[in-house]
Structure formats: structure tokens, C-alpha cells
Amino acid sequence: VEPISLGLALAGVLTGYISYPRLYCLFAECCSQKRSLSREALQKDLDSKLFGQHLAKKVILNAVAGFISNPKPKKPLTLSLHGWTGTGKNFVSKIIAENIYEGGLNSDYVHLFVATLHFPHASNITLYKDQLQLWIRGNVSACARSIFIFDEMDKMHAGLIDAIKPFLDYYELVDRVSYQKAIFIFLSNAGAERITDVALDFWRSGKQREDIKLKDMEHALSVSVFNNKNKIADTTQKQTKLASHV
Ligand SMILES: Nc1ncnc2c1ncn2[C@@H]1O[C@H](COP(=O)(O)OP(=O)(O)OP(=O)(O)O)[C@@H](O)[C@H]1O
User: 37, 72, 108, 164: which one has the fewest Cβ atoms less than 10 Å from its Cβ?
Assistant: First the structure.
């Protein structure tokens, strides 16, 4: 085989490989999922890995599976997870990410922000706002199904939470970009005391933990948020208002 013909053939194959997305996606991570999310696989993961969180499991399974199977969601999926440290909020976010992208938290399409790490100085709030909005816009432009996880929401400046708000509404386009397929997950310790109180009340009255219904927790969270007129409560109230699933 002549070197020139061989070179041309190789170039042809490479061009075909790069220009044919499905083939390319066999070897590299792609925004369009390699496998669509399986409700059964997510349920299996939640059941086998996440313990003692029957309410979170149910809400997360229905919300995530329902959202991913909807070809035209009207707004992004927004989840707000509350609880004491070490109760599995980051853990369950990882499970969600892994069920959508093989790379999980390491995927190019999954972005984790930690309030105290990424936005430490209240004096830089204007800069953070601009950077965060540009980051979200850039990444959703590149991949509509981007996942953004915000940890320590209770420590996040309320102004920064306001900066996320425009992306979460029922807009078809914001500055020519659609955010309707994106997923936003907010994690915080806020409301944890009330959640424990409810669990303790159930235990004292001889009921099973699994008897706790979502409405019991929703009521407890809203009471704890609205009764506290401090800064943390303000950010928590904003957080729960941002989310369609708490
Ligand atoms: N409900 C749970 N089921 C199974 N494992 C859990 C659960 N909760 C926590 N873990 C284990 O503990 C580890 C720490 O939990 P995780 O980081 O998810 O807590 P967190 O709620 O996000 O805490 P923080 O508020 O401090 O961020 C997890 O990586 C996991 O191994």
C-alpha cells in the first residue's frame, strides 16, 4: 500500500469517526447519554446503597426518572435535599449523577459547587454572581442535560442564590439558551433539627420511621424556615422556593 493512499485512508477514517457522533460517543464521554437512565437501575441503586431514607428515595426516584423520560420538560429539575451532616445528601447526588452519566461526579457535565470553597468571601459577591451565571450559561449551552450540585446552601450568600433563580423558571429561553433539561440539586443542613424532631416524635409514639410521610417533613421544614428570621433561614427559604422537590 502506498504511503499516500494509506494516509488518505486513515484521514478518511478519522474524519468519519470524529464527524459521526454515535461512533465518537462509543469511545468518549458525550452529552447525549450513552444509555438512557433506567428507572429500575436507579431504584436498585437507591434500595441497595441508601439506607434509612425512604422519603428521599421515593421523591428522588419519581422526580429524576419522570424528568429524564420527559422529552420536553417545561422547566429544569430542581431538588432540595436537607438533613444533618453525614445523612447521605452528597452520597445520593453521586448516585443520581452516576445513573445519568457513567463518569458520575467526574463527568464533564456534572458540576459541584461548595459554598465555603467556591464562594468564600461575601465581599466578592458581585464577581461570584457574574462568574456563576457565566459558568451555568456556558455549560448548559454546551450540554443541555448538565447537572449542577450546590453543597452547603445554608452557607451560601442569599444574593448568590438569587443569581441562580432566573435559570430555574418556566422560560423556554434565557438569552437564547434553554435550561429546561438541566438538573439543579441543592444540599443543606438547614431544617435538620426539625427533621430529627419529627423522627423522634414518631419513635416516642411507637411508630415506625417508615410511617413518616412526606407531608410531615414538608410541614416541619416550612415551619422551621418561616419561624427563623435570620440570614440562614432566609437562604433556606430561598433554597426551598427554588426547588420543585424538597
Ligand atoms: N443514608 C445513607 N445510606 C448509606 N450510606 C450513607 C448514608 N448517609 C451517609 N452515608 C455514608 O456516609 C458518607 C458521608 O455522607 P454524605 O457525604 O453523603 O453526607 P452529607 O449528608 O452530604 O453530609 P454534609 O452535610 O456534611 O455534606 C457517604 O459517602 C456514605 O458512604
Answer: 72
